[in-house]
Automatic annotation (TrEMBL):
It comes from Arthrobacter jinronghuae. Residues 169-294 form the VOC domain. This is Reverse transcriptase-like protein. InterPro entries: Glyas_Bleomycin-R_OHBP_Dase, RNaseH-like_sf, RNaseH_domain, RNaseH_sf, VOC_core. PANTHER family: POLYNUCLEOTIDYL TRANSFERASE, RIBONUCLEASE H-LIKE SUPERFAMILY PROTEIN, RIBONUCLEASE HI. CDD domains: RNase_HI_like (cd09279). PROSITE patterns: RNASE_H_1, VOC. Residues 1-129 form the RNase H type-1 domain. SUPFAM superfamilies: Glyoxalase/Bleomycin resistance protein/Dihydroxybiphenyl dioxygenase, Ribonuclease H-like.
């Protein structure tokens, strides 16, 4: 599905709202749309809020769909694509929420000029107008009834009845390192390339949020100093889904500039078996990561 999103703030920060919609990729018809006043926030917060709403709309229609997200915000597109770092704490939380809605591997981001994002822009302005007037946003008269129905489904799902928490999934992985700065340059960089978003940071470490669970890298006084060896009892390596075979190859080449070397080069890319396409990488401390295609 195609989603389009926009957000605006009159004053930046000021009165703000977002617009979000889902479009049929074959016909271009709008399947669902939503707009909401979000109070007095910055333009960037409004933009991210629009993206979150658009992903929720698409997920409510088809939880297994692949998504092309189109926005005229260069910042959001580059940050969510993993090409720009997310330094602001509010942006980190919003990006993490967006990545938790849909598996990041099923979402691609595309920047479009403002003139091609008119429907989402219209919705965000409708939301700001409604907020200024002190009334809730309502779909235009004559708007697609299916869109209104999908929005109603999403509204009902926003406060679901309590359900049992899922079990059997990793909550987080914590990796202690000798040198956090070095680990951040290699492993932290790679985490962001495969879809994780930097979440929290402190003097001796940081965490990166994924679609499910998060990963912590930490150096501290309790770390027993000594060289790391993946062959000792304990964690041997981390393996991440990294997209297509071409995506794996591109990422492996780029990783060489960030402290990683290719392992098992004579058997690459089938070191794990003839049916298994992957790149095995090792950083300067000896930590191993596997990038899996498919």
């Amino acid at each position: 599905m195609i989603v389009e999103a926009d957000g605006g703030s009159r004053g930046n920060p000021g009165i703000a709202g977002y617009g979000a919609l889902v479009r049929d990729p074959d016909t271009g018809r709008i399947l669902a749309e939503k707009a909401e006043y979000v109070g007095r926030v910055s333009n960037n917060v409004a933009e991210y809020s629009g993206l979150i709403a658009a992903l929720e709309l698409a997920h409510s229609i088809d939880p297994d769909c692949w998504i092309l997200a189109k926005m005229d915000s260069k910042l959001v597109v580059e940050q969510m694509s993993g090409r720009w770092k997310i330094k602001h704490a509010d942006m980190q939380k919003l990006a993490a929420k967006a990545r938790s809605i849909v598996n990041p591997q099923r979402v691609k981001y595309q920047w479009i000029p403002r003139e091609l994002n008119k429907d989402a822009d219209r919705l965000s302005n409708e939301a700001m107008d409604a907020g200024t007037a002190g009334v809730p946003w309502k779909p235009r008269a004559g708007a697609d009834t299916k869109a209104a129905a999908a929005a109603a489904v999403l509204e009902a799902a926003s406060s679901p009845a309590p359900a049992a928490a899922p079990t059997g999934r990793l909550h987080h992985t914590e990796i202690w390192v000798n040198d956090f700065a070095a680990a951040e340059k290699s492993l932290g960089w790679l985490l962001e390339r495969v879809g994780y978003v930097r979440k929290d940071e402190w003097d001796s470490g940081a965490s990166w949020q994924g679609a499910e669970g998060y990963i912590v890298l930490e150096e501290g006084p309790d770390v027993e100093r000594g060289p790391y060896s993946r062959k000792r009892a304990g964690l041997n390596h981390l393996a991440f889904r990294a997209g297509s075979e071409a995506d794996v190859e591109l990422l492996a080449r780029r990783a060489a500039s960030h402290g990683w070397t290719l392992m098992f080069a004579d058997r690459h890319p089938h070191a794990g078996g003839a049916e298994h396409y992957a790149a095995y990488l090792e950083n300067e401390e000896g930590f191993e990561v596997e990038l899996v295609a498919g």
